[in-house]
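[agent] plan:
  1. take the single chain provided in the ticket
  2. run structure prediction with default settings
  3. attach structure tokens to the ticket
  4. add a short note for the reviewer (M.T.)
[agent] executing step 1
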Amino acid sequence: MDRGEERVPLKQNAWLVGVSLQVLFFILFFGAILPEMNNIIGAFVCFVIGLLSLFLGIKSLKQHFQPVLSLIVIAIAILILLFTLYAYFTTEAGIPPAILQ
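[agent] step 2 finished; step 3 output follows
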């Protein structure tokens, strides 16, 4: 750091990456990119984004970095995971799950 570079603390990095992953999910969802994907790839992407966001939110909470915002990241990650399970893995009126179509 001899050139005057400021480094972002590691605590903040985990939280920022978790929020960035959630922003990526919302861009995929509201940008109508997610329905254009193959169902297996879409389910995998949503599941990975949800799990990583959950892990990073828990990590930020354990490091006591902005606990309220870390709890919000955890709650949104759980909602993403629940949405993934509902949208891709549940049947509806005898129609097989989207992951099998």
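[agent] step 4 note for reviewer: The radius of gyration is 17 Å.
[agent] ticket updated
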